[in-house]
Amino acid sequence: MTKDVERSEVEYKLDANGEVDVNYYLHKAEVLRAAYMLELYLSAKNSFKSSVMAFYEKFICVNCHPSH
Length: 68
Hints:
Blueprint: H1 22-60
């Protein structure tokens, strides 16, 4: 039994010298890292906000309405 394996050719961005453009990939990694950190921050912020609201509704404002 033989299995056909496809080899995909990966294309790399090259610089003016024909070498892999490391600065391009470092910049791309930094942009992706910033986007990830922003998403993480917003997720934590929303989680904290919902926790505070739940605490407020449970212990401070027993008959709380959404308009409060």
